[in-house]
Write a structure and sequence with these properties.
15% strand; three-stranded antiparallel β-sheet; Beta-lactamase; alpha+beta
Length: 339
C-alpha cells in the first residue's frame, strides 16, 4: 500500500512549529525534511545557520552535530549488521566482545540487549576526563565501575553505547569511524561523518561554553566524545537533514536489510513512562519509533505507514535546550501518529 502523503495542514503545522522555535530564541535556525518511503519529500527551513554564518538560511545540506542521534545512525545499524553476520549475539555479555578484563568488572556482564535498551544498571554518570593518564584500556575502566542498580530498570545513559562502540571496533578489528563510514556510504549518507569537521557556513555552530571564548564550531559538543577524538558509540557524528531523509527511506523500505532490524527493534523492552517504551535503542510510542540528539536533532519513523520526519537544529547554541524543543518534537511525533 502506498504511504499516505503529508497534507498541507501537516506541512503548515511543522513550519509553524519550527518558526516558533526560532522566534522564541530556541534555536538560531533549523531544517525539517519529511517524506515517505515512496519518495515524497518536503523541506522546511527557518532562521539562519547561526549569526556567525551570515543571513543565509540553513538548507537540507547544512551539517549539524547529531549528538545522541549517533546512537541510531551509527551504533544501532552496525549492531544489526553484526548480528546478521553472527559476530554478535543480543543476549551475550558485552565483555565477550572486548579485550580480556582483569579483576571484578560488573559492567562487562551487561548483555548487548541490556545496553541497547538502557536497562543494564550501569553507572549513569560517565566522566572520561577522570581517566586521564590511566594506561588501563577504556573498556576495562568503564566495566570496573560499580553498577548503580540491579539490571532491569530503564535509565537512559551514554556509557552503554560507548561500550557498544568499543565492542564493535574490537570485534571487527577496525576503528568505529571506518565501520560507520562504510555503513553511511552504503546507505548514501554522503555528508555524514564523525567529527571534527572544518568550520564554515555549511556547518552549524553549537555552544559557547565560556564568555569571550570561541564557540564550539566543527568540534564535537559532547565532552566524552571529544575526549575520544570525536568518534564514540553514543555521540560524535555530524549529519544533514538530507542524509537523515535518505537513511529514513532505507529503514522504511521492506526490501532493505536494515528494515527487518528496525521492525525487531520496535518491540517494547522497557517502559519509560505511560505510552512510551524503549525498544532496541529507539523510543517507541504506538506506531512511531524515534530518537533525539541533545544538540537539537531528531528522527521520527512510522514503519506501518512508511512516513518519516527528520529534524536538524542547533538549539544548544543558546545553552542547554531544556524544554525548548518539546513542542516541536511532540508535534512531529503526533503528525506521524495520527495518520
Amino acid at each position: 500500500m502506498r504511504p499516505a502523503p503529508f497534507t498541507r495542514t501537516d506541512l503548515r503545522a511543522l513550519r509553524a512549529g519550527l518558526e516558533a522555535l526560532v522566534a522564541t530564541a530556541g534555536t538560531p535556525g533549523g531544517v525539517i525534511v519529511c517524506g515517505t518511503s515512496a519518495g515524497e519529500r518536503h523541506t522546511i527551513a527557518a532562521g539562519v545557520v547561526a549569526p556567525e554564518c551570515g543571513d543565509a538560511p540553513p538548507t537540507e545540506h547544512t551539517l549539524y552535530d547529531a549528538a545522541s542521534l549517533t546512537k541510531v545512525i551509527a551504533t544501532w545499524p552496525l549492531i544489526g549488521r553484526a548480528l546478521d553476520s553472527g559476530l554478535l549475539d543480543l543476549d551475550t555479555p558485552v565483555g565477550a566482545y572486548l579485550a580480556p578484563i582483569t579483576g571484578d568488572a560488573p559492567g562487562a556482564d551487561a548483555t548487548i540487549r541490556r545496553l541497547l535498551t538502557h536497562t543494564g544498571g550501569l553507572r549513569a554518570e560517565t566522566r572520561l576526563d577522570r581517566y586521564r593518564g590511566d594506561p588501563t584500556p577504556l573498556a576495562e575502566l568503564l566495566c570496573r565501575e560499580p553498577l548503580d542498580e540491579p539490571p532491569g530498570r530503564h535509565r537512559y545513559l551514554n556509557r552503554g553505547f560507548i561500550l557498544l562502540g568499543l565492542a564493535l571496533a574490537h570485534t571487527h578489528r577496525r576503528p568505529l569511524h571506518e565501520l560507520a563510514a562504510e555503513l553511511w556510504a552504503d546507505v548514501r549518507m554522503t555528508a555524514t561523518t564523525y567529527g571534527p569537521v572544518t568550520r564554515g557556513p555549511h556547518v552549524a555552530p553549537t555552544e559557547q561554553r565560556l564568555a569571550g571564548a570561541p564557540r564550539i564550531w566543527g568540534g564535537v559538543h559532547d565532552d566524552n566524545a571529544a575526549l575520544l577524538g570525536g568518534t564514540a558509540g553514543h555521540a560524535g557524528a555530524f549529519t544533514t537533514a538530507a542524509d537523515l531523509a535518505r537513511y529514513a527511506r532505507r529503514l522504511l523500505d521492506p526490501e532493505h536489510p536494515l528494515h527487518a532490524w528496525l521492525i525487531a527493534s520496535r518491540a517494547p523492552h522497557a517502559p519509560v513512562e505511560p505510552g512510551l517504551d524503549r525498544g532496541l535503542a529507539w523510543l517507541v510510542a504506538g506506531q512511531v519509533a524515534y530518537h533525539h540528539g541533545w544538540t537539537g536533532t531528531s528522527l521520527f519513523l512510522a514503519p506501518t505507514t512508511g512516513r518519516y520526519i527528520a529534524v536538524c537544529t542547533n538549539a544548544v547554541y543558546h545553552g542547554p535546550p531544556g524544554s525548548r524543543l518539546h513542542p516541536l518534537r511532540a508535534l512531529a511525533r503526533e503528525t506521524l501518529a495520527t495518520t
